[in-house]
Design a protein that fits this description.
The protein is of the alpha/beta class. The protein has one domain: Vaccinia Virus protein VP39 (Rossmann fold). It has 7 helices and 12 strands. Strands 4-3-2-5-6-12-11 form a 7-stranded mixed β-sheet. The radius of gyration is 16 Å and the shape is globular. The model has no long low-confidence stretch (mean pLDDT 96). The structure holds S-adenosylmethionine (SAM). S-adenosylmethionine binds next to helix 1.
């Protein structure tokens, strides 16, 4: 039987395409900059699931310290090449990445779309462990319930990929982050299936 490659393989294969789009356009998520600019100068951020690092670069360009984490080696290679002043780590967001030190804010744009609902709690626990008191999360997710097969499965150059693309409702996020985070507000609704939420550390 033909082997089906997973999420990291998919992003290794497509990293250059995402980078081209991400570095050419304006902010992928315009309201991210409003969130960032509420912070004091000198604040430190984590761009979790940073991909090729274009949003990481935008945060850095606003004068903040920022580090990135992703588990796609090819995305990180591009991120490092384009941003030599920023530190990027290769890790899985479900692992303990507290070695990065504490941060004041985490942005995770289209990262939880690859996390099964049963693993959301672990993702929130790891994020909570690196946030300073009063730290906040900026989360962009695809609204809905469960895996979306047509956005998950694809064939590129004869190889089959399943990137495990999963929609999440706000209620799911609130339930799985219970006791760790409080939902603050939704921002930047643009009429699509994408939603941006801000959560605050408890
Ligand atoms: C849809 S892309 C989003 C990239 C970027 N945040 C953006 O705004 O365009 C999802 C990214 O999440 C990364 N990713 C998915 N699951 C991950 C995991 N468990 N740990 C670390 N990175 C992960 C992928 O490698 C990919 O770079």
């Amino acid at each position: 039987m033909k082997q089906v490659k997973g999420t990291a393989d998919f992003y290794n294969k497509t990293a250059a395409d995402w980078a081209e789009k991400g570095y050419d356009g304006g902010p992928g998520v315009p309201c991210l900059l409003d969130f960032i600019k509420e912070y004091e100068p000198g604040s430190r951020f984590l761009d979790l699931c940073c991909g090729a690092g274009y949003e990481t670069q935008r945060i850095h360009a606003c004068g903040y310290e920022v580090v990135g984490i992703d588990f796609s080696e090819e995305s990180l290679r591009i991120a490092r090449e384009k941003n030599p002043a920023i530190t990027f780590y290769n890790d899985n967001l479900l692992n303990d990445y507290s070695y990065i030190g504490k941060v004041d804010g985490i942005i995770i744009i289209a990262g939880l779309v690859h996390i099964e609902t049963e693993n959301l709690r672990t993702a929130f626990l790891q994020m909570h462990s690196v946030l300073n008191e009063n730290g906040r999360l900026f989360i962009t997710v695809r609204d809905g319930v469960g895996k979306i097969p047509e956005r998950s499965v694809t064939t590129i150059d004869g190889e089959d990929y399943d990137r495990n693309f999963i929609a999440h409702t706000l209620n799911e996020l609130i339930k799985e982050s219970d006791g760790l985070f409080t939902f603050e507000q939704e921002v930047g609704f643009d009429g699509t299936v994408w939603r941006n939420y801000i959560f605050k550390c408890r």
